[in-house]
Specification:
single chain, 263 residues, alpha/beta, Rossmann fold, 7-stranded mixed beta sheet
Length: 263
């Protein structure tokens, strides 16, 4: 966990997605350092996290990862925190907000997907066979899967350095935990949780995303009462790396003017 920014500012807690770590936010967080207390962390199994903390039972569902977010908020005694979650981290933040409503004040969901598997008329972007093939490939050759999937997830083929960074991030993740987290991530169904959100919520959707297509962003927006949808003029699933200025602008437009808060 890394804590920085303005000590008395409104807290912002950043939750990364599958195969990533807190470093993925490095192009976005400096823009908020003068006004907000910034909290970044690595999910257990990713980045610099303590691998000994991983428990297959605790992390059998996304609820376990959400409890980690809540425990961070409790440890730092955060209130009115803005949870910023990317990809599966967005679902984790939705669950965390339900677990600790007194500590969470707003949600920013970047490329969220409450369910990756199609369930007509709902379109998640993948068939059940697609997901099983993806998970089998990951199980049999994690490094090979990482090298093949990173360019698909990142998009922006004209900027190969972005895919290379994501590949390296995958390779820093413990393979056993990654396989487990992937199955939890890609088979989860958190659609019903969206309707229970009663916080100001910003949904950020890229106009072209192979992992969470535009229909998913629209679905999340329609399912979360009173939410705001911003479609970024960006491609790929990681706009915090490929289009950080757009992400910053959208979040600034969503959050009220910063003022000293209680942390």
């Amino acid at each position: 966990m890394t804590v920085g920014g303005r000590a008395d500012g409104r807290p912002m807690v950043f939750a990364h997605g599958f195969g990533c770590d807190q470093n993925m936010w490095r192009l976005v967080t400096p823009a908020f350092a003068d006004d907000h207390r910034l909290v970044l962390f690595d999910h257990v199994g990713a980045g610099g996290s303590a691998l000994t903390a991983w428990d297959p039972e605790r992390y059998a569902t996304l609820e376990g990862y959400a409890r980690d977010v809540v425990e961070i908020c409790e440890e730092l005694d955060l209130t009115d925190a803005v949870l910023v979650g990317h990809s599966v981290g967005a679902s984790i933040c939705v669950l965390a907000a339900a677990q600790a409503p007194s500590r969470i004040g707003a949600l920013v969901l970047v490329g969220p997907s409450p369910r990756y598997i199609d369930d007509p008329p709902y379109r998640g972007g993948f068939s059940e066979a697609d997901i099983e093939e993806l998970l089998e490939s990951l199980d049999s050759n994690y490094l090979g899967w990482s090298g093949a999937m990173a360019p698909v997830i990142m998009g922006n083929p004209e900027r190969p350095e972005l895919a290379a960074e994501l590949t390296n991030s995958f390779c820093r993740t413990d393979p056993e935990i990654a396989r487990h987290f992937a199955r939890v991530t890609f088979t989860a169904d958190n659609r019903d949780d969206l309707g229970r959100v009663d916080l100001p919520t910003l949904v950020l959707q890229c106009r072209d995303d192979a992992i969470a297509p535009p229909e998913v962003g629209t679905y999340v927006h329609r399912s979360v009462p009173g939410s705001t949808l911003v479609v970024l003029d960006a491609t790929g699933h990681c706009p915090q790396l490929s289009a950080p200025d757009q992400v910053i602008t959208a979040i600034r437009g969503f959050l009220p003017p910063a003022a000293p808060g209680t942390t």
